[in-house]
Amino acid sequence: MSAKKKRKKRKLNPTRFILFILIIFFLVSAGATAGLLFVSIKDLPAFNEKNLIPANATQIFDSNEQLVTQIGSENRTQVSLSQIPLHVQEAFLAAEDHLFYEHHGIRIEAIARAAINDALHMLGAERNFQGASTITQQLVKLSFLNPERTIKRKIQEAILSFKMESRYSKEEILSMYLNRIYFGEGAYGIQAAAQTYFGRDAGDLTIAQAALLAGIIKSPNNYSPYQNFDLGLSHRNQVLDDMYRYNFINEGEYQQAKAEELVLKQGGTNANKYPYPYFVDYITEQLVEKFGEEKVFKGGLKVYTTLDPQIQTYAENAMANQANFPSSQRDSSGVLQPQGAMVIIEPRTGEVKALVGGREHTHQRSLNRATMSPRQPGSAIKPILAYGPAIELKGMGPATVIDDAPVTYHSYGNYSPRNSGGGYRGLITLRTALTHSVNIVAVKLLMDHVQISNAVNFAARMNINIDPTGPAIALGGLKHGVTPMQLAGAYAAIANNGLYIDPVSILKVEDYDGTVLFEAERTPRRAMKETTAYLLTDMMKSVVQSGTGTGAQIGRPVAGKTGTTDDGKDIWFAGYTPDLVGVVWIGYDTPVKMPHSYGGTYPAQIWREVMRQAHQGIPSHDFTRPQGLTSATVDSKSGLLPGPNTPPEHMVTDLFASGTVPSKHDNVHVLTEVCATTGLLPNQYCPERITRVMLKLPYTSSPAVADYNLRVPTKICDVHGIDSVTNPEEEVNTDVNITIPGNDAENGVDNQGHPADRRSRNNNGLYMPNNTGTDL
After folding, report:
1. Quick one: pLDDT band at residue 19, thresholds 50, 70, 90?
2. According to the 3-state scheme, what is the secondary structure of 90-106?
3. Which pLDDT belongs to residue 2?
4. Taking burial as the number of CB atoms within 10 A of a residue's CB, which of 176, 341, 485, 621 is the most buried?
5. What are phi and psi for residue 71, nearest 5 degrees?
6. What percent of the chain is modeled with pLDDT above 90?
7. CA atoms lying within 13 Å on the CB side of residue 57
8. Using only C-alpha atoms, what is the Rg of the chain?
9. HSE-CB of 4 using CA atoms within 13 angstroms
10. 74-259 architecture in CATH?
11. Sign of the CA dihedral with 578 first, then 579, 583, and 584 last
């Protein structure tokens, strides 16, 4: 029998098995590592140096170069490393990377320690949050990579860190890092953090304060002392311990810093976060137009403005005061109505000192009515479209006389202007007409003397652009209206002796590195003669002293003009002193009637409240009278020199530009014989006649005018008949005796011995001496 050979079973060699497994693991790991390395390099983000420049907030400064606020997507202010004290730098080195100046971007031992820590955590051990990232790696992560925690990202981080160290010095890397990191409470970078937590610049931080900030960055939302004071203090002390351990500070500095009380900025981080919102909005709007959104909100610009914080505060408070407005309510959108706006300009420089575009400011509805909402100006436009060009172009003046009487302009749809009170004052001077805002006089100046095209050109010199639609523009009936800013700029030209300066609110803009990108160039241009400006000012002083603007009196010389549109839908006051110009508007965003509201009420009240405060500390002084003006006494019913029949009550003394003082004498006042009973021209039967000084005009007067009874009657007495005669056989004198100077004009003298009056007068009753100036 053959025997079967029994096979011997081979035993497993443990050493060989482990070696085999290790070889397989090594090959797989090497392959995986090579593949991962390949993928990491393949997907490596481009080293775009623009990414190293963080989004810096734009800083806005007031006229005193004090920081007002910052605008931008991040609250960040760039500072150079030279502006950051060494102890502040060392606080961050101690907290984050005390061997920063010794490595080349990464630390192998730290990475290995972190890897072991991660592996142990996967096996259930508690994670030890010892950081593996150097400052260079953190900067790379912030600038080029996403926050995911993967091996691929770690490989990319290491590669980019080597690149970073090869291109930049340690000082440049540290500077970029300190300006980039987030500190919580909306603060990015060391400067913003210093301001947010301590209200001071980074250059003024103490060791203890620097340690607090360095301790925050590991978990800004948790370690902020505003969120958890004790935890923030604990991390500050830990950083101080590290600074002492790594010999950044000595024993004495360490003890002193540990003992320093932690005092945070008062009011928290939200105090005055967005002050003067309408002014800041206006600045932001201009910046975006000049430089674009990217530069404005991320470029770290420094913007120096004309803002006067005190005056701005006065204006904002006045606009917030319910007592300064008619009865108010909210519309369907929740906006308080009526609304208001105010602009204040320094006339000599054109600088906008304050601007308020509404009674409330919300981010959802931030309509800036001071600059974005043109409205009908009412009578506030009269000095610009009627009186100014009449003085400048036609040689008229405050004592020029116009007949405030009914008039109709048939070529403009039978347009008949009406005065506010409905009455007519008759023959009045321009000063009186402006003082009491007489509408018909303004329209007659525009239509019968200045002409619309000339008035439009005159207004354009002050950047008031008018569509020449018709006579109503003299009363503010404009197609597109004006903004408070435009009107303030025009009135500033009058206050500035006729020199117009474009309103300026931004004086200078610097880039984050100090390069000047923009500087305001103020080039005044002559909008009107100095004498014209002063005569307008002097007339508008009368408006405030005794006319429609008495509500704007502040105990010092003020000139101004009220404006009220139909039914009070828009009410204005535009006024000025030698130092400041202010324009106030009130109305509904969608025009609504405001009964019993006028420019001389609420707007003048706001103007007075703000300007009285704004002029504190400014000595009271009057407007400077230029050369080329003289005073003269004239007849207030003809505008000529007083004649033999001018009564004392019709004599006025006023200002005239050189060359416009009339040389002719009044012949409007005449001696007229009238019936003693009826005051009409006598008929042959009137038993008693008297001679009166009356006004003789070359046109028929309306009985509606206030001085109608002073005018030579056009009707003959119809009360007295033959029965009125005592002795019928006695011859009755039927002549009417009217003595009119100038009857003997052909001989060169009138019948009173005065020079003959060879002058013309139009059908609206203006008496124009031949020597009242030359048309320009």
Report:
1. low
2. HHHHHHHCCCCCCCCCC
3. 43
4. 341
5. -125, 145
6. 64
7. 21
8. 42
9. 3
10. Orthogonal Bundle (1.10)
11. negative
The rounded distance, in Å, linking the Cα atoms of 429 and 635 is 10
Cα distance between residue 143 and residue 53, in whole Å: 8
Helix axis angle for 135-144 and 170-180, nearest 10°, is 60
Residues 6 or more apart from 146 whose CB is under 8 A from it?
153
Tokens of 345: 């300009």
Cα–Cα distance, 220 to 197 (Å, whole number) = 12
Work out the pLDDT band at 144, boundaries 50, 70, 90.
low
Q: How far apart are CA 485 and CA 487, in angstroms?
A: 6
Per-residue pLDDT, averaged over 32-40, amounts to 44
d(C-alpha 435, C-alpha 532), whole Å: 17
Tokens of 718: 């119809």
Q: How many CB atoms lie within 10 A of CB 658?
A: 11
- 736-760 as b/e: b if 16+ CB within 10 A: eebbbbbeeeeeeebebebebbebe
E strand or H helix that includes residue 346: strand 339-346
pLDDT tens-digit map of 733-753: 444 444 433 333 333 333 333
- pLDDT tens per residue across span 91-141: 999 998 899 888 877 776 655 555 555 555 555 554 444 456 888 888 777
Look at the block and give the residue holding tokens 């009130």: 586
* Cβ-based burial of 366 (10 A; exposed 0-12, middle 13-18, buried ≥19): middle
Provide the H-helix boundaries in 406-451: 430-435, 439-444
How far lies 602's CA from each of 330, 336, 375, 572, in Å?
19, 16, 17, 9
- Residue 187's CB is within 10 A of a number of other CB atoms, namely 26
pLDDT tens column, 717-737: 999 987 766 555 444 444 444
- Does residue 275 have a cis peptide bond before it, meaning omega lies within 30 degrees of 0? no
Q: Which two tokens stand for residue 563?
A: 């404006």
The domain ranges of the chain are 57-67+274-376+499-626, 74-259
Cα separations in angstroms, 710 against 391, 707, 735: 28, 5, 20
- Cα–Cα distance measured from residue 277 to residue 356, given in angstroms and rounded to the nearest whole number: 8
Structure tokens at 548: 């429609």
Q: Reduced to 3 states, what is the DSSP secondary structure of residue 660?
A: coil
The average confidence (pLDDT) of the chain is 84
Burial category of 586 from C-beta neighbours within 10 Å (exposed 0-12, middle 13-18, buried 19 and up):
buried
Phi and psi of 20, rounded to 5°? -60, -45
Closest CA to 431 of 560, 563, 533, 539: 539
As given in the structure block, the two tokens for residue 333 are 């959108």
Q: What is the CATH architecture assignment of 57-67+274-376+499-626?
A: 3-Layer(aba) Sandwich (3.40)
* Nearest CA among 435, 425, 431 for reference residue 379: 435
- Residues annotated as catalytic are 96, 379
Nearest to 668 by CA among 700, 694, 632: 694
Cα→Cα distances 385→443, 465, 472, 763, Å: 10, 11, 11, 22
